[in-house]
Specification:
The structure is a single chain. The protein is α+β, with helices and mostly antiparallel strands and 192 residues long. It has a single domain, classed as 3-Layer(aba) Sandwich (Aminopeptidase). Helices cover 35% and strands 26% of the residues. The chain contains 7 helices and 8 strands. The strands form 2 sheets. A 5-stranded antiparallel sheet has the order 1-2-3-4-5, sandwiched between helices. Strands 6-8-7 form a 3-stranded antiparallel sheet. It is globular and about 45 Å long. The two termini are 22 Å apart. The chain binds coenzyme A (COA). The site of coenzyme A has 19 residues, from β5, α5 and α6.
């Protein structure tokens, strides 16, 4: 199940997350320039929009993310290191209305990859999604060749659900993860 309007309406305040190493305020126009720099690495942009993510394209994307926050009460968080206050990426939820699903997405600056920061940020959002927002299921929509993203999804507990084509015509592997409550009920149990 994805987020219903009733559920969204009951939790509207933007989510300010914090983890051991990260501050995670809602991503906004304040972060657009720093996000453009993160996207400037070809290895970052390759599977998430490529050439469209120049300064103008990134600003437009951030405006779409802000609209998601307003409409759904969830969205993308900026990732800011506690130690230096540096912006290093984004992580959060994004709806796919065409599929009636909500995706957990993540981007971490190349220079700071390999330290578990994406895992840390994504786990914080999994907790919010399942325990505070009451979502029953999340997806991760990943290009088949995006090995780091597939490894991260697996590390987070996602499993392959299907191969699909996005509305933009891109082939993807759709991973899914059920909320803990759904794992128990779908596995069967006493009728009580
Ligand atoms: C997908 C992406 C976020 C993964 O970044 P990442 O740095 O590999 O992920 P993490 O931050 O969780 O780090 C995991 C790595 O750090 C290591 N690590 C170190 N300390 C760790 C810790 N405390 N916890 C977890 N992992 C840790 C892990 O062993 C792993 O290393 P490995 O890749 O050699 O196995 C990154 O590749 C990216 O931004 N890609 C471009 C954008 C993109 O494609 N996004 C996904 C769209 S579907």
């Amino acid at each position: 199940m994805t987020l219903t309007r009733d559920t969204a309406a009951s939790y509207r305040a933007p989510v300010h997350l914090e983890t051991e190493r990260l501050l995670m305020p809602p991503l906004s126009g304040l972060h657009a320039a720093a996000l453009t720099e993160v996207y400037a690495e070809p290895e970052i942009a390759r599977h998430i929009g490529g050439a469209a993510l120049d300064a103008e394209g990134t600003a437009a994307q951030v405006r779409r993310f802000e609209a998601v926050w307003r409409e759904h009460g969830f969205g993308q968080s900026a990732l800011v290191t506690r130690v230096s206050g540096t912006f290093v990426g984004r992580t959060g939820l994004h709806p796919w209305p065409q599929w009636d699903e909500v995706e957990l997405g993540y981007v971490v600056a190349r220079r700071i990859q390999g330290r578990g920061l994406a895992t840390e940020a994504a786990r914080a959002w999994l907790d919010v999604a399942f325990r505070r927002l009451g979502l029953h299921r999340l997806t991760a929509v990943i290009h088949p060749d995006n090995a780091p993203s597939r490894a991260l999804a697996t590390r987070l507990g996602f499993r392959v659900h299907r191969n699909d084509i996005t509305p933009a015509g891109v082939p993807v592997v759709v991973y899914e993860q059920l909320a803990p409550s759904q794992r128990i009920s779908r596995a069967g149990g006493p009728d009580c």
